[in-house]
Write a structure and sequence with these properties.
- The chain has 172 residues and is mainly alpha-helical.
- The protein is 55% helix and 7% strand.
- The chain has a domain at 61-137: Orthogonal Bundle (Arc Repressor Mutant, subunit A), CATH 1.10.10.
- It is built from seven helices and three strands; from the N terminus they run H-H-E-H-H-E-E-H-H-H.
Length: 172
């Protein structure tokens, strides 16, 4: 296991130029850069993990990894609305709509309009869609999500907050 660069901060004496409020010490610029590089490396490792797992679907599979994820969600929860599927997969509704259109073209899912509210559409697997789910390898299914689900609620909240802060700064 790699040692984190976070512990590699240099200590400053209280009252020095780098000291913060109440004598708190700030990491040196070099140490902060080392920590930032380590975080970047870890992001890249996490993204690589998702790509490796997505790439483990056999080439003969008729669907992409994102489409496979949607099929699995629908297998677990038949009749999902498009918005519910988007939430479950953490994707934008327009992305899910495009994904569903491709699955409809492949005749792997079908839409059914809600009998009480004609604006609501429910999604179901077709027999062909069920076969794709049943014959696909499950090991690649959301390894990163499974890892996140094993973290403590407190750690997940911190990670969520800090990633949101990072993305806000990057866009800002």
């Amino acid at each position: 296991m790699k040692k984190s660069a976070i512990g590699a901060r240099t200590k400053r004496q209280p009252g020095s130029a780098a000291s913060g409020v109440n004598g708190a010490t700030a990491p040196s610029r070099r140490s902060q850069n080392a920590v930032a590089m380590q975080v970047l490396k870890n992001f890249r490792r996490a993204l690589r993990l998702t790509r490796v797992n997505a790439g483990s679907l056999p080439k003969r599979m008729p669907v992409s990894s994102a489409q496979m994820g949607a099929l699995r969600e629908l297998a677990e929860q038949p009749g999902m609305r498009v918005t519910d599927l988007a939430d479950a997969m953490a994707l934008h509704q327009s992305t899910i709509s495009n994904l569903i259109d491709k699955l409809l073209q492949k005749q792997l899912v079908r839409r059914k309009t809600d009998s009480e509210d004609g604006r609501v559409v429910h999604l179901y697997l077709t027999a062909a869609g069920e076969r794709v789910v049943l014959t696909s390898p499950s090991a690649a299914h959301n390894a990163l999500l499974a890892t996140l689900q094993r973290l403590s609620p407190k750690t997940l909240r911190i990670l969520d907050r800090e990633l949101a802060n990072l993305l806000d700064r990057a866009q800002g």
